[in-house]
């Protein structure tokens, strides 16, 4: 059966070239020979397979690999990456399916010119009847890939370079990162919590065992000694019982216990007072089970894609349902599941009813304080994660930092400001390097009451 299959494929191919025709005739001969005497001719069968493999490798090298149109140069890849990030990233990854397929290898799946035409105007290529892209379109539930007519031929070439050769994952590096994710060992350099618990547990068991053994030894020794002929004093010593009541009643004991209780109460009270108004760790349940770990982590969507205000103003903004709909018009469920996800249905309901999604606010400074995102993210070049923690790993967002005045001030005392390439600071930096240490936020007024208080 398998051989027969090969046969028809080869015949189809044979019509093309005479040289191939000769080879195929040979193969046909071998196949029929092979089929006639199934049992004895293992050697011939092997030969046929080797030949077939060689043949396909030949076709392979001619048709696909080393296509001169896709350049493997650093400039082309870098330029392509920029175009990709600006236009394609929301729907594609190189090695992973997203809204569209994983792109690596795309220029091998179809002739280059057709791939380029598809990127420019996918619907036109699909309408032209190209069977590969029609199948792909169906596979992706008729999701329309928007057209990119504005891309120049150079852009397209760079794009293909990036798609084929860019951001190749080094397996060793990938293993290292997953390793770091998996346990705190690599990241923190300490012993992870689970191990500590296990070690503690083992220690407790060992100590208990020692206690039991000691108890046994004592009772054996006492038994032995009471049978001996001892004088009265020694006998008293051996049979004496520890008087616990006496210990509890001693002054020393009372003093120690009282001191401990007072200390504990004081600490709890102080902690309580300090944390009035602090909501560190606050992670309310949200109306939709939206996950930053999935969107910002796995799918690597930029924070700014949704929090559009961070670079331009005071407030970061929570995205409206429209931004979700950019993708969720197409993505109706997580991969491999049927129908519409109930969580995503909530987005559709919000849009249909023209009702905003009522996200619960997590971070909230009192009205008396002024905080501006663009000042920190753009001018200060502070990473979101410095203040908000590893958001890209959170299923549910929680407040990472204390958000107290002390927290703001501490950072302003310690953080040097980036002055490079900013003429505004040149003079200040000059004055500063002459006198003191590096220029910190505190030196440009980061501790002035009026900067943070209205
Ligand atoms: C709105 C989402 C979206 C955007 C943006 C998008 N694509 Fe696509 N792309 C798709 C979908 C969906 C498919 C699957 C075919 C279809 O449904 O038309 C696809 C298919 C492809 C294919 C064929 C893949 C294969 O396996 O052969 C290529 C190549 C491609 N896209 C390149 C690009 C490039 C380059 C860009 C940016 C310039 C881009 N796409 C932007 C959604 C998108
Ligand atoms: C796909 C859209 C999207 C992306 C991308 C995204 N977020 Fe969000 N973010 C939201 C939504 C929706 C909420 C409100 C619901 C919630 O708190 O989970 C939110 C809430 C937050 C909050 C809490 C806001 C509050 O109520 O105080 C922080 C902080 C935050 N995001 C930071 C980030 C950071 C940092 C990144 C990038 C690593 C990021 N987000 C990427 C959509 C997004
Ligand atoms: C850039 C594209 C993109 C944007 C923007 C986006 N999502 Fe998603 N979202 C996805 C993809 C892709 C999946 C499915 C991932 C998978 O298959 O595992 C998904 C999955 C989800 C899921 C999981 C559904 C389930 O059943 O587990 C929820 C909920 C969700 N998104 C909510 C939102 C909300 C709310 C917003 C807007 C604040 C949003 N998404 C914006 C791409 C996006
Ligand atoms: C210097 C610390 C700091 C940095 C850096 C920072 N944030 Fe914030 N963020 C805050 C504080 C403080 C609040 C509370 C603001 C308030 O209540 O007025 C906040 C609030 C938010 C909120 C809630 C909505 C709002 O605007 O009040 C979101 C969303 C958010 N941040 C996202 C981000 C993203 C995304 C980044 C990175 C691009 C980022 N933040 C960088 C400190 C920071
Ligand atoms: C992680 C460090 C960090 C934290 C935390 C932080 N800031 Fe800042 N802040 C900076 C940096 C860096 C700058 C300097 C930006 C620049 O170069 O002008 C800055 C500048 C400022 C400025 C402008 C100062 C000036 O003279 O131009 C204000 C106002 C401010 N921060 C308020 C706050 C408030 C309010 C908080 C707490 C809610 C806060 N910051 C928390 C790092 C931080
Ligand atoms: C870097 C920013 C920053 C500077 C500079 C700053 N504050 Fe604050 N301050 C805050 C923030 C943020 C809060 C609110 C945090 C909280 O509630 O714990 C706050 C809270 C306060 C409160 C407490 C209000 C209350 O209801 O609990 C007082 C009082 C106060 N600040 C006075 C001052 C004075 C006086 C100065 C100048 C010497 C000053 N602050 C400088 C950021 C700042």
From TrEMBL:
Domain of life: Bacteria
Species for this entry: Algoriphagus antarcticus
Keywords attached to this entry: Heme, Iron, Membrane, Metal-binding, Transmembrane, Transmembrane helix
Annotated protein name in UniProt: Quinol:cytochrome c oxidoreductase pentaheme cytochrome subunit
The UniProt record lists the keyword Disulfide bond: no
UniProt GO molecular function: electron transfer activity; heme binding; metal ion binding
Domain Cytochrome c positions: 75-167
Keyword check for Transmembrane: yes
Sequence intervals crossing the membrane: 46-65, 195-221, 252-270
InterPro entries named in the record: Cyt_c-like_dom, Cyt_c-like_dom_sf, Multihaem_cyt_sf
């Amino acid at each position: 059966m398998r051989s027969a299959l090969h046969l028809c494929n080869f015949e189809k191919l044979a019509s093309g070239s005479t040289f191939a025709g000769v080879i195929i005739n040979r193969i046909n001969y071998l196949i029929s020979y092979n089929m006639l005497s199934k049992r004895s001719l293992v050697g011939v069968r092997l030969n046929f397979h080797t030949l077939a493999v060689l043949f396909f490798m030949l076709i392979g090298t001619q048709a696909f690999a080393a296509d001169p149109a896709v350049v493997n140069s650093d400039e082309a890849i870098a330029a392509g990456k920029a175009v990709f990030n600006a236009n394609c990233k929301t729907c594609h990854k190189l090695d992973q399916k997203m809204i569209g397929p994983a792109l690596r290898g795309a220029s091998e799946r179809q002739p280059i010119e057709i791939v380029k035409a598809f990127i420019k105007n996918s619907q036109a290529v699909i309408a032209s009847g190209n069977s590969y892209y029609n199948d792909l379109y169906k596979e992706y539930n008729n999701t329309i890939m928007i057209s990119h007519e504005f891309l120049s031929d150079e852009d397209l070439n760079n794009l293909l370079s990036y798609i084929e050769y860019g951001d190749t994952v080094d397996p060793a590096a990938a293993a290292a990162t997953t390793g770091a994710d998996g346990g705190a060992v690599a990241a923190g350099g300490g012993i992870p919590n689970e191990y500590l618990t296990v070690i503690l547990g083992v220690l407790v068991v060992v100590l208990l065992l020692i206690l039991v053994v000691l108890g046994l030894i004592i009772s054996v020794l006492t038994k032995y000694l009471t049978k001996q002929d001892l004088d009265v004093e020694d006998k008293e010593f051996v049979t004496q019982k520890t008087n616990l009541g006496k210990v509890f009643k001693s002054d020393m004991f009372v003093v120690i216990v009282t001191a401990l209780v007072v200390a504990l109460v004081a600490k709890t009270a102080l902690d309580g007072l300090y944390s009035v108004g602090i909501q560190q760790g606050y992670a309310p349940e949200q109306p939709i089970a939206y996950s930053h770990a999935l969107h910002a982590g796995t799918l690597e969507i930029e924070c700014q894609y949704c929090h559009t205000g961070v670079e331009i103003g005071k407030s970061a903004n929570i995205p409206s349902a429209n931004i979700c709909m950019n993708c969720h018009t197409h993505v109706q469920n997580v991969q491999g599941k049927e129908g519409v996800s109930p969580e995503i249905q909530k987005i559709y309901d919000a849009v249909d009813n023209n009702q905003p999604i009522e996200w619960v606010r997590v971070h909230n400074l009192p009205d008396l304080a002024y905080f501006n995102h663009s000042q920190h993210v753009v001018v200060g070049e502070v990473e979101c994660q410095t203040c908000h923690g590893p958001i890209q790993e959170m299923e549910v967002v929680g407040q990472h930092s204390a958000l107290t005045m002390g927290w703001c001030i501490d950072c302003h005392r310690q953080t040097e400001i980036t002055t490079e390439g900013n003429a505004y600071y040149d003079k200040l930096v000059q004055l500063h390097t002459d006198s003191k240490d590096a220029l910190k936020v505190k030196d440009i007024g980061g501790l002035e009451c009026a900067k943070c208080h209205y």
